[in-house]
Sequence to fold (409 residues):
Amino acid sequence: MSSSLFYDHLETRRPQEREEQLFSKLPGFLAKLQSETPGWRAQLAGTEPAAVTSRAALASLPLLRKSSLTQLQATTPPFGGLSGAGPARVFMSPGPVFEPQSPAPGASGFARALYAAGFRAGEILHNCFVYHMTPGGFLVDDGARALGLGVFPAGPGNTEMQVEAIAHLRPAGYAGTPDYLKVIIDKAAELGRDVSSIKKALVSGGALFPSLRDEYRAGGVAVLQAYGTADLGCIAYESAAMEGMIVNENMIVEIVRTGTGEPAAEGEVGEVVVTTFNETYPLVRFATGDLSAFMPGQSPCGRTNRRIKGWLGRADQTTKVKGMFVHPSQIAEIARRHPELGRLRLAVTREGEQDAMTLFAESQALDEGLSSRLAESLAAVTKLRGTVNLVAAGSLPNDGKVIADERKY
Fold:
């Protein structure tokens, strides 16, 4: 393993070279899925793989949502006809959704994240991600072993025993949720045990608040974040520059407008959509349900892949109004009917013990005629009546929300 700042040469490729290499292998990969996996044959019906050689062409393919996997796996067990080669392990997430793990070393992508966080071959990692049924522990374990780390598979809990293990093994760093490392450090102080060998950490699965990162830093622990999912492994990770999260190699990440599969503009908050080349668990335009946004430029650390702002919330904003579901896709349909508008945002409130809707719309022209037409579209699309409030262009928050449920439960 290189002693350089980078895991390998892929991280410093010219961006155009990376795009060309990814999209040169995508047509063959899609053709193989259509030929060998019945689930993907159905999902990609009507797709001509040879034509999918650009982001624009990829954006024309349908999204696969995690919410669809439960039904697909129930009708076509065990993996909905979407899995390829045999798995090394199978995990179970709420839903239930079953995720096959690739037997290929390093397939989880976490080796890059660990390397960027300062871990090097020969060190010991204290891994507190869950190993039981869900994949977090094994995904990070896979990356650690690909990097040449020794792993103590701690999982969460049994904190006193973990403190004893750290005091004895002297691991170089920690992996787990942001908060649990503090639990370990505080317990060690209570017991009078030395856990100061932990100088670095890779955290995920929860919010790393700036105050907590500062507290760790003051205690001599440098903490970086990774963003991943059970289905995809590591999607993006921080480097020492701590300016956004760098997209992992060997996957294609899109940010799409909430409720649609249409690409969002750079800087616009939208849903994270990922295409992987994992032959055991291939996923094409997999909609994670997470919100993020692309950042302009490249990381000061020298890695050249695109950056995202990290996890910014959840995209699925479906809500019930007067007993009827209102979906983000319906707000997207209203937007398509009125292309002269900017962002739209539906606020759901309570008025006189009844649900009420107000559609806020960015518009250059603040006229009553437009308000009336927009109210008609709102009623036609949602089958519910609501008021319309035209606002100045650029005045609605750029947070990816198209439905804001403001009712107090």
Notes: The chain has a mean pLDDT of 93. Residues 15-36 form the longest helix (22 residues). The chain has two domains: 9-308, 319-405.
